[in-house]
Amino acid sequence: MNTMTMKEFDSVQREPRARAAAEVNVEEPFNVEEMFFSRTDTRGVIEAYNNIFIRVSGFSSEELKGAPHKLIRHSDMPKGVFWLLWNGLENGHPVGAYVKNKNKEGHYYWVFALVTPVEGGYLSMRIKPTSPQLALVEGLYKEIRKLELEQKLSAEESAKLILERLAGLGIHSYGAFQAHALHQEFEARRKALQMPAFSDLSNTETIAVTSELLRQELDQLADKFKSAEILTANMKIFAAKLAVGRATINEIAKNYDLMLNDIRNHLNTLVVPPVGTGIWDVPEELGAYFMICASHLMTEMCDTFEAHKCDVDGVDSDYENRVLIKLQKEYDKKSERAVAYGVQSAASIQRRAEFLRRMVLGLSTIRIACRVEAGMLRGKAKGLETIVSRLDVFHDEIEAHLEKIQHHVTTILLAADEHA
Ligand SMILES: Cc1cc2nc3c(=O)[nH]c(=O)nc-3n(C[C@H](O)[C@H](O)[C@H](O)COP(=O)(O)O)c2cc1C
Fold first, then answer.
1. Contacts 24+ apart (CB under 8 A), 161-170
2. Which of 46, 221, 280, 359 is most enclosed, with most CB atoms within 10 A?
3. Domain named PAS fold-3: which ranges (predicted)?
């Protein structure tokens, strides 16, 4: 909070020396392959940038250096977005955001910015947003900005509204939104530039999509086991009416019940705990996308910067190069960790799915005992045959679920294997 106060103090005190012209509805072009960055101190005062930033922003190096970043703030931007940006940065998170900026001429340009804490401040790397997500975000920002002005919302209230709108779209945190958005932008850009798919990303995608299918399958299986209680209850009711064989049927029902209970408990260990809904909470697979995309983009940013060795007045390009490379390594490490997590959880799911299969086999043995008993009681056990055939249907359904589970687990393991 301390830095936030300093930033606010700085924003009030330090008006930019240079100013942009009045906003006009003209887009400042830049190419999809272009990437640019700026680095600020902890208060958002610009310290360094590359030549593309100079060209797009339209300001000279002299005007940019030492200016607060709000120099290029566009009035269409909801302040809630910047509240989220600073909240993330001050809590040590990288933040991805769509930002509409204005340049010196008052022209606008959209970027998808990835802002990260670095030594002594923050670094923002930007790409051109080209995914369909931008249109959605533009609409969202328009609505929020209108409400901000009409209802005189604070930046924090506006941020809450943004989070509410995202939740309405099924995205339960800003962390999840930025990961999803970065992934979308990364892929749209890759396709626009006709670059081949990155295998780490497509494997992660396979793991994520299949894990979701697996989760649904496990949920359905858990429901099925919940509803199986009725089968043993019927068995016990039936046994109570029997003159012969009551004890055996009762025993079978009791064993079946115990086994069902064990399976239900085991299934509970397979259920993935729900992800928190704090601003920066993010499901593992989305977190992995975010880190992998960030790592690839940072690699490209480093290569571009190195290749163009842009001599910008007032910017020490060797120093900036080192900052970029350090950040790239950080992203790389985090993306490797995210991938390793995916591989680990796939292996653990496989072990537990195997155990589940064995338990179901045990359950099936009890069912067979019940069928044998029904055969022995024959004429005296008409109702029991109906119960046994219901058990058969139940076991067939379970078997079908188990097969699907096995198929998903194998898909995940194959993708994880390619990763390793
Ligand atoms: C590294 C970094 C990059 C930033 N980039 C932008 C930017 O491109 N456009 C922008 O309007 N604000 C940017 N900001 C946020 C500004 O510092 C500022 O919070 C924002 O313009 C809103 O200004 P205000 O809080 O004074 O209203 C950036 C901040 C940091 C730390």
1. 161/80, 162/78, 162/80, 162/81, 162/84, 163/279, 165/140, 167/277
2. 46
3. 50-118
